[in-house]
Backbone:
């Protein structure tokens, strides 16, 4: 979805990319995460994200611990990037691509919350297409998130991604046009 907004001229900030960077051995949260969860999450010197996920998605307290370590650092990075992009008067639309935007409380820091709604089966298929994760693990991850209905109630704009790609692109185009017109 973020790519569709980028095609319309938006600058996209990918929060997950920052997470990946900061979990590397040179990253800001690496040592803290390793101390908190132990060397069992390592593959050599690197944090094995799959091992870490296996630990945190089985225990809500451990997931909360991880997010309390990672989210503040990533939020600062996202806010700094937004501030930097806003200095450029030619940039009229900035999209923060953050799957847990609402859960992390970051919705307070953006002008609009755009939620992409997908069916449970679509969510499962998309994760399986991206990563070698079994259905049970995917369901654990989904269940650790806020229910879709609740997110919809908190969103300013909902993109219904349960239809065809062409229909989703049309919705995204219309939303981007509306937001760009407001940004003038």
Residues:
């Amino acid at each position: 979805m973020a790519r569709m907004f980028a095609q319309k001229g938006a600058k996209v900030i990918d929060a997950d990319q920052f997470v990946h960077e900061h979990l590397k051995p040179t990253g800001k949260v690496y040592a803290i995460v390793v101390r908190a969860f132990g060397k069992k999450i390592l593959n050599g010197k690197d944090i094995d994200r799959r091992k870490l996920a296996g630990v945190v998605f089985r225990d809500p307290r451990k997931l909360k611990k991880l997010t309390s370590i990672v989210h503040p650092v990533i939020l600062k990075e996202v806010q700094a990037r937004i501030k930097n992009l806003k200095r450029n008067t030619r940039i009229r639309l900035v999209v923060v691509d953050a799957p847990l935007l609402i859960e992390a409380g970051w919705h307070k820091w953006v002008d609009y919350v755009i939620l992409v709604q997908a069916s449970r089966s679509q969510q499962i298929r998309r994760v399986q297409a991206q990563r070698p994760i079994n259905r049970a693990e995917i369901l654990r991850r989904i269940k650790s998130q806020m229910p879709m209905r609740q997110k919809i109630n908190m969103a300013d704009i909902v993109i219904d991604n349960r239809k065809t790609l062409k229909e989703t692109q049309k919705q995204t185009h219309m939303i981007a046009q509306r937001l760009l017109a407001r940004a003038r």
Q: What stands out?
A: Residues 60-86 form the longest helix (27 residues).
